[in-house]
Specification:
two-stranded antiparallel ribbon, alpha/beta, binds magnesium ion, Alpha-ketoacid_DH_E1_comp, globular, 7 strands, 2 domains, oxidoreductase, binds thiamine diphosphate
Length: 428
């Protein structure tokens, strides 16, 4: 009973979002509208944001139901480029599988896969220039793989071993690679959004030619940082591309808690007066085309774009999660937009540029390659086996000259280690 209730008025109540399907239910996605390819044709890259509101509610597609590439958004990529895209996505899948298993084997404490979302990191990176700056979330390892970052270095970071370029200072998978245009991943959701805008504004204020691209999840759009970033970018017309990987879930919360029952994520662009595109995130060609369109706009001072990739998180949130506890089984198999790798494969086979045999052979080769890299990385150590950066390095790299109080603390730590583990530990 409310404290201030008037008898002649209906009591107020809140709406609490509830996902449509729970464990034990059979998922039914028949209410998801998948428009025809080219339902809205590709507009000129210099179009005013106010003239393309419909694109924020539509779904940019290139691969049709038979996996033929059609329509005005078709980026017309060569078969070689498409095979490279396929290779990168398969490498990512092989890498994810090995590292997930490594966590289960106790070789690391944590891992996050990107199964089902591979197009949103691989195809987007291929549409950018190599020197454009990426501000990823934790599920865009595909950027590093696409930019040929060494897999062994990624694994060293996951194992926090003595080869880890980040010296064990970051949670596994939170890479940082400045020389690859890959900003340090932060566990604090959406902090990368204002950082990307700041970087893009700096690039423009220096009359540079590089642009910034930033990724976050559907759930992350509920963070204040998302909105202040969009405001800054709109005000200053910053050369930045905002991407929302709408994989339907934020750990165990479905996208409704971030507002998906009310509008699309792409439509948030409209309120800020910037361009917004909603894209089939499992269609590599549509993802590439959207990023290319947005990048061309940003590069020609036509301002920021917000792209929503409509996709599905095929597996658990992380190795610490079990989606069987909160969502219906087989949701991924029933997802109406299919699987990004399977669709590209089918497209290449249909156009005579690929065969099932070639595909199987490539999957096997990549699996062997990743396994070999894993062996190499494990020479540098795995979790709990002692081969990590020396403890004293945790005090380094903050101050140019280590202040006296840190020197003292470091010495005290070494002394305590000595007392606890003795000379054996020191000899390592
Ligand atoms: C500021 C902040 N709040 C909460 C968390 C805990 N958290 C980590 S991941 C996550 C879900 C994010 O979901 P989404 O943005 O959809 O990305 P996805 O995991 O689906 O890729 C949450 C709530 C966090 N890391 N940081
Ligand atoms: Mg999500």
């Amino acid at each position: 009973m409310g404290q201030h209730q008037r008898e002649n008025l209906a009591p107020l109540h809140l709406h609490i979002p509830e996902p449509k399907f729970r464990p034990g239910d059979k998922a039914d996605f028949s209410d998801i509208i998948v428009p025809e390819v080219d339902a809205i044709a590709r507009p000129d890259e210099h179009v005013a944001p106010a003239d393309i509101h419909a694109l924020a509610y539509g779904l940019v597609r290139v691969l049709d139901d038979e996996n033929a590439a059609t329509g005005s958004w078709n980026p017309g990529l060569s078969a070689d480029t498409l095979r490279l895209m396929l290779r990168k996505m398969l490498t990512l899948r092989a890498f994810d599988d090995r590292m997930f298993r490594a966590q289960r084997q106790g070789k690391t404490s944590f891992y996050m896969k990107s199964f089902g979302e591979e197009a949103t990191s691989v195809a987007t990176t291929m549409a950018l220039h190599r020197d454009d700056m990426c501000f990823p979330s934790y599920r865009q390892q595909g950027i590093l793989i696409t930019r040929d970052y060494p897999l062994v270095d990624m694994m060293n970071q996951i194992y926090s071993n003595r080869g880890d370029r980040l010296k064990g200072r970051q949670l596994p998978i939170m890479y940082s690679a400045k020389d690859y245009g890959f900003f340090s991943i932060s566990g604090n959701l959406t902090t990368q959004y204002p950082q990307a805008v700041g970087w893009a504004m700096a690039s423009a204020s220096r009359a540079d030619t590089r642009i910034a691209a930033v990724w976050c999840g559907d759930g992350s759009t509920a963070e204040g940082d998302f909105h202040s970033a969009l405001t800054f970018a709109a005000v200053y017309n910053a050369p930045v591309i905002f991407q929302v990987v709408n994989n339907q879930w934020a750990i165990s919360s479905f996208s409704g808690f971030a507002g998906s029952e009310r509008t699309t994520f792409a439509a948030k662009a409209i309120g800020y007066g910037i361009a917004g595109l909603r894209v089939d995130g499992n269609d590599v060609l549509a993802v590439y085309a959207a990023m290319q369109w947005a990048a061309n706009r940003a590069r020609t001072n036509n301002g920021p774009t917000l792209i929503e990739y409509f996709t599905y998180r095929g597996e658990g949130h992380s190795t610490s999660d079990d989606p069987n506890a909160y969502r219906a089984a087989e949701e991924y198999a029933l997802w109406p937009l299919g699987d990004p790798v399977e669709r590209l494969k089918a497209h290449l086979i249909a156009t005579g540029e690929w065969t099932h045999e070639q595909h199987e052979a490539l999957v096997a080769t990549l699996s062997d390659e990743v396994k070999a890299k894993q062996k190499e990385a494990e020479q540098n150590g795995i979790l709990g086996h002692g081969l990590h950066h020396p403890f004293e390095t945790m005090f380094e790299d903050v101050f140019e000259e280590m202040p006296a109080h840190l020197k003292e603390q470091c010495a005290q730590m070494l002394e305590e280690q000595h007392d606890k583990f003795g000379p054996e530990w020191e000899a390592r």
